[in-house]
Write a structure and sequence with these properties.
The protein is 30% helix and 19% strand. The protein is of the alpha+beta class. Helix 11 packs antiparallel against helix 13 and helix 17 packs antiparallel against helix 18.
Length: 525
């Protein structure tokens, strides 16, 4: 009865919006951990950062297509190792001061400075000449040998160790956005506060009260400011999806946010003309902390992943159109096809194999197996999943796994410190290439929260990523993914769909593969 009343309310006509014609108000789903482009990893961080900053290249609404950003053009050498970017003349920071190629040199060197400890530093240290050396010895002398150079105010040259198929895509991502040296060095870890921050994108932040809202206003110094129609952006950090939907139905939100509705309602919400459901390139998985016993035993990790009934999860728990997945690389990655892992598709057979493996590891019928914990960030859907999967492990393997939750920022810190046994995680593609998922497990990756390292795996990716796109490269990437799926430092569970409510007055929004809004392209009728 209650569910029917909720659905009836959702499917009724929307009231007029309470938000203003020239503003866009949305649910960011959580408080950002950081708004420093060097540290952004989560969706709540990047959804805000991409509105305030812009790289050498930017992305069009579909997220896949690259377009000129701070650089108006670029050339690539015949050996595919030297990229020369022509930075636009007349660029300004949001405070009106000039921005040029030297700002990119400073920002990219900052990203690989060990004192910064940037999350994605390996994008540069693995690929750019001299970057790894600078990351170890950040001196002025070593900096001269790094392949990151502003040869004049409008020319920025990057020299790679080897060709990197997806390199241009990286220049449109947050790690490689410019930050203003004077601001960063004056205010240090407080430079992203609204009273201090200086940015270069379509919007500038004017207000940030934790657990209340972030307000951004149109940046008049943005080079394409005359094309930006939304003048004010307000982001709310509401974790409860139903609360977000309620605010949308009351006319207080223009967008309910990424996956901004309870999963249990998705099948019925498809009837609502304001509800949008489309494919995604995001994989949901569980990390196994391979530095801890008994998860350091490959047989235990294989048993745990075999005992997850993925089909039941997407049909009975998530119910949002997700696709059961026993592979890390999400769909929509060109013509790449993931290999098979330890699962067979026959759950009964997989459970039998799981029991055998657990017995081989010395834990027949779960006897003697220590109680493990399962970390997830606070969210009703993550809670349901953790409960369902821990029950599967108890029923099929006779082991106890206790779920526990933490608020977003605390959860991320716990994951980085690897202070967990098993942890919920999700990975949205940073760029449209299989490597965006596979690089997670590199030995050099700060996003690898499994403790698993493998030199052969690293070498496979290095070789593959020096090759042009095609069948030969895909074969090497498949070999690398096969290693993950068989050694199981993590257990893929499903790939997301993207869904949520958007006001009918909003134009210029395209539901892209990672459900990231580029508000500079949007308008309001």
């Amino acid at each position: 009865m209650i569910l029917n009343l909720v659905l009836a309310a959702l499917l009724s006509a929307l009231p007029p919006p309470e938000t203003k014609k020239d503003e866009f108000v949305f649910n960011n789903r959580a408080e950002p951990e950081s708004l420093d482009p060097a540290f952004a990893t989560g969706v709540p961080d990047n959804t805000i950062i991409v509105q305030m900053f812009e790289g050498l290249l930017t992305r069009k609404n579909d997220w896949v297509t690259l377009a000129p950003g701070m650089a108006e053009s670029y050339t690539i050498s015949k050996d595919q190792k030297i990229y020369t970017f022509k930075v636009r003349k007349g660029l300004k920071w949001s405070d009106g001061s000039p921005l040029n190629a030297k700002d990119f040199e400073y920002s990219w060197l900052r990203a690989i400075d060990p004192k910064t400890n940037a999350t994605y530093a390996y994008w540069l240290t693995d690929n750019v000449v001299g970057a790894a050396e600078y990351n170890k010895t950040p001196t002025a002398e070593v900096a001269k040998k790094v392949g990151i150079k502003a040869t004049d105010d409008y020319t920025f040259v990057v020299t790679l160790k080897q060709p990197v198929t997806y390199f241009l895509s990286l220049t449109a991502e947050s790690l490689l956005y410019p930050v203003k040296k004077e601001t960063v060095e004056k205010f240090k870890d407080q430079w992203t506060r609204p009273e201090n921050i200086v940015s270069n994108g379509a919007y500038k932040m004017t207000y940030w009260k934790v657990q209340d809202r972030i307000v951004m206003e149109k940046n008049p110094n943005y080079y394409a400011a005359d094309t930006v129609q939304i003048k004010k952006v307000v982001a709310l950090p509401i974790e409860d999806r139903q609360t977000g939907v309620n605010l949308f139905q009351q006319g207080k939100l223009d967008w309910s946010g990424q996956n901004g509705a309870p999963n249990s309602l998705v099948p019925s919400l498809k009837k609502d003309p304001n509800f949008r459901l489309f494919p995604g390139t995001i994989t949901y998985y569980y990390w196994f902390n391979t530095t801890k016993k008994p998860l350091n035993d490959i047989r235990v990790r294989q048993a745990l992943t075999l005992a997850i009934d993925r089909k039941s999860i997407v049909e009975k728990v998530t119910r949002g159109g997700e696709m059961a997945a026993d592979h890390l690389v999400s769909q929509n990655m060109g013509d790449y096809k993931s290999p098979k892992g330890v699962t067979s598709g026959d759950y009964a057979a997989d459970v039998k194999k799981a029991k055998d493996l657990l017995a081989q590891a010395g834990f027949a019928n779960g006897k003697g197996f220590p109680e493990l914990n399962l970390l997830y960030n606070s969210d009703e859907n993550h809670k349901k999943l953790a409960q369902a999967i821990s029950q599967m492990w108890k029923k099929e393997l006779g082991i106890e796994v206790k779920p526990f939750n933490q608020e977003w920022k605390v959860y991320l810190a716990t994951q980085r410190d690897m202070a967990f046994d098993i942890s919920r995680a999700g990975w949205a593609a940073d760029y449209a290439d299989p490597n965006t998922f596979l690089e997670l497990l590199l030995s050099t990756s700060e996003n690898n929260h499994s403790g698993w390292k493998n030199a052969k795996y690293d070498e496979l990716l290095k070789t593959a990523n020096s090759m042009p796109a095609g069948a030969k490269r895909n074969e090497l990437l498949s070999q690398a993914e096969s290693m993950i799926l068989n050694e199981v430092p993590m257990a893929p569970i499903f790939t997301y769909t993207n869904f949520g409510f958007m006001r009918p007055e909003i134009a210029g929004y395209t539901g892209n593969l990672i459900d990231r809004p580029y508000i500079k392209y949007m308008s309001k009728k």
